Amino acid sequence: MMTSRALHGPARAVVIGLGLLVAWQALVMATALPPYILPDPLRVMTALVVHAASIGRHAAITLTEIVLGLGIGIALGAASALLIVAFRPARRWLLPLLVVSQAVPVFALAPLLVLWLGYGLASKVAMAAVIIYFPVTAAFSDGLRRADPGWLDLALSMDASRLASLRHIRAPAALPALASGVRVATAVAPIGAVVGEWVGASAGLGYLMLHANARMQIDLMFAALLILGAIAVALYFAVDRLLKRLMPWQPESSPAED
Amino acid sequence: MLVDRAATAVSVSVAIVGGTCTFGKATLFRDLDLTLAAGSWTCLLGPSGIGKTSLIRLILESTRIRGQTRAIGTGVVACDDGHPLRGRVAYMAQRDLLLPWLTVRDNVLLGRRLRGEAIDAPARGRADALIEAVGMQDAAGLRPDALSGGMRQRAALARTLFEDRPVVLMDEPFSAVDAITRVRLQDLAATLLRGRTVLLVTHDPLEALRLGHRIFVMAGRPARLGEPLHAPGNPPRPVDDPGVLALQGELLRRLAAAHS
Ligand SMILES: Nc1ncnc2c1ncn2[C@@H]1O[C@H](COP(=O)(O)OP(=O)(O)OP(=O)(O)O)[C@@H](O)[C@H]1O
Ligand SMILES: [Mg+2]
């Protein structure tokens, strides 16, 4: 089972990639749209090669923003969840704040963040961190609160302090819940970074796309989009792999499910 | 390694007075009194769902310090030496409650970790000796998901014995193992817990008669405890001990009555 799945993973990715290319080419031929609306794959690949250096530079910046945003957002989210569960007053004050932070459309914050933190990395990192903060906090605090009461009884018989049972029982028990929060975060963090770049930036793939769009370099815009997608997908699978490695006790659903 | 500290352990008796436990509209038991005699085994039998586990948990909850609310019932739990029960009780629940992210050895050592005590060589040695005593030496490094039900239960038993407490509460500790292993584990527990104050919940009359000094049958709703049966001689008694055989009929009669 394991080997056949390991073989199929990359093979499937290639098949999906080729399928999308074919569909794209077919769409271009069927609609006969001009290249400045929908360029064909070959044109985009050419743009990719021609602008490789520039795309690479911008991609590195966007990737940095995403990774930093992820790190900061996850750290803040996990810390808030621990605080909420460990201290009752924290729950009373933080919880409403959290809900409000979600009720306000976070993208509306982007111009403010740029205003406050400038055109550089900081505002994009902040944007990514802000949009992943809530899913991480919610998932982890949920997991922390749902620890098996039997375990807590056991901890009671072992004279565990609240802090000790939080550290040795509830936190590890909530790691799988945190992991699903982190997966969501990984999927949405690129959105935060790119939105930040759209609002105001002088570098990054989002900036490059806007810039190319304004100059009608649609093939370049598509090339940047392609790389952005590749980064997002690669990041997601890398994080997913890492999380599974970190939690080997977490049962996988059976491979027969699909 | 498995130092028998029975001689040095000061035994303590634990009295539950006015134990009451209600879930929704159902009152499992009300004003129930039970004294766990110092240094002896008290066995508790009764139909499924009568409230045995709830009674054990009521005793355990009494060790909760102020501010930790989630309470299962009310009642006074007091030790005859006037000191609190907290810090002197080991608990083996009906479910094994092994932590899935820890190996068997680390599960056995959990108490030390939770108390912030060092996991040093002597502690590790004692854990390994207990793991071997329950026949799990080959699985000491495995995580619970790689164990069978009976193996998990044996790991939980090792963890309970490792705690080395004067009062031990055990909820069906040998229910998931085969008959021969069960007898062996009963012997082990009886030896290692000699001189401790033990409350053992079980569905197995033979087990109660082998291990118990006093045997209670819990029956009715709200549940009551009848007069205890007194088993003669020192546990662990042989399975064909005449005293055991003589009481078996009486115990089964009481259990049958509890079911009607
Ligand atoms: N947390 C709970 N909430 C609601 N009802 C509960 C709870 N815990 C136990 N009960 C109910 O209390 C009753 C007694 O449960 P308990 O676990 O004490 O039985 P038991 O005597 O240990 O049974 P068994 O021999 O099957 O283990 C059951 O009817 C159960 O449904
Ligand atoms: Mg029970």
UniProtKB/TrEMBL annotation, chain A:
Annotated compartments: Cell membrane
Major localization listed first in the record, in broad terms: membrane
Keyword terms, alphabetized: Cell membrane, Membrane, Transmembrane, Transmembrane helix, Transport
Cellular component GO terms, alphabetical: plasma membrane
Membrane topology, from the record: Multi-pass membrane protein
Coiled coil: none
Transmembrane portions of the chain: 66-87, 94-119, 125-144, 218-239
ABC transmembrane type-1 domain span: 55-239
InterPro entries per record: MetI-like, MetI-like_sf
BP terms from Gene Ontology: transmembrane transport
Keyword Lyase: no
Record has Cytoplasm as a keyword: no
Family: Belongs to the binding-protein-dependent transport system permease family.
Protein name: ABC transporter permease protein HI_0355
Species of provenance: Candidatus Defluviicoccus seviourii
Classification lineage: Bacteria, Pseudomonadati, Pseudomonadota, Alphaproteobacteria, Rhodospirillales
Automatic annotation (TrEMBL), chain B:
Lineage: Bacteria, Pseudomonadati, Pseudomonadota, Alphaproteobacteria, Rhodospirillales
Domain of life: Bacteria
Signal peptide location: none
Molecular function GO terms recorded: ATP binding; ATP hydrolysis activity
Family membership: Belongs to the ABC transporter superfamily.
Keyword entries, A-Z: ATP-binding, Nucleotide-binding, Transport
Pfam families, per database record: ABC_tran
Protein name: Uncharacterized ABC transporter ATP-binding protein HI_0354
UniProt cross-references to Gene3D superfamilies, sorted A to Z: P-loop containing nucleotide triphosphate hydrolases (3.40.50.300)
PROSITE patterns on file: ABC_TRANSPORTER_1, ABC_TRANSPORTER_2
Domain ABC transporter residues, every copy: 12-244
SMART domains: AAA
Organism for this UniProt entry: Candidatus Defluviicoccus seviourii
